[in-house]
Amino acid sequence: MKENKKVLCFVAELFEDLELWYPVLRLREEGIEVKLVGREAGKVYKGKHGVSATSDLSFSEVNAQDYDGIIIPGGYAPDKLRVIQEALDLVKTADDMKKPIGQICHAGQVTVSAKILAGRKVTSVKAIKDDMVNSGAEWTDEEVVIDRNLVSSRTPSDLPAYVKKFIEVLNMDIM
User: Taking the complete model, does pTM exceed 0.85, yes or no?
Assistant: First the structure.
């Protein structure tokens, strides 16, 4: 593993608590620096189940070039994230650079809006299957799907497999 890996984790109101904190804590256990990035730096965002997270940075102050990957949690946050142009630009640039992007549950809404799914194989919560397919993706109902640098998963019950695969892709240095 390349030393000093750095990953951004997106945050917005009503994120799925486990889908944010499980990956963040697992990545930190691996020695990976994780920064929470939201619309505003230093803002406290509340999760769906009441656990809060404070953003370290704002989307306007980060560059994809400075990070090794992105994690996008689900919940209701993706519906808010998908309308933030800086967040979409960050995802698109990271994808263009072949940096790992992890999406789980409803997080696919962000990658749909970033227009990076055409021709890709993905999974998500079934509720957004049509959105994924309509964006040109091949949707499948599997616990975790890897398509080049994109790692997708369905629900919190898939978190162990999802985070394990994200870490593997992050360590592959596919850039």
Answer: yes
Tens of pLDDT along the chain (175 residues) come to: 446 899 999 999 999 999 999 999 999 999 999 999 999 999 999 999 999 999 999 999 999 999 999 999 999 999 999 999 999 999 999 999 999 999 999 999 999 999 999 999 999 999 999 999 999 999 999 999 999 999 999 999 999 999 999 999 999 865 4
Q: Give residue for tokens 């870490």.
A: 167
Query: Alpha-carbon distance 83 to 22, whole Å?
Result: 25
* Residue 31 neighbours by CB under 8 Å, 6+ apart: 5
106 catalytically annotated: yes
Query: What residues does 104 pair with on adjacent strands?
Result: 153
The residue annotated as part of the active site, out of 106, 120, 154, 165, is 106
Rounded to 5°, the CA angle 122-33-173 comes to 50
Q: How many CB atoms lie within 10 A of CB 1?
A: 12
Set 36, 94, 105, 170: catalytic member:
105
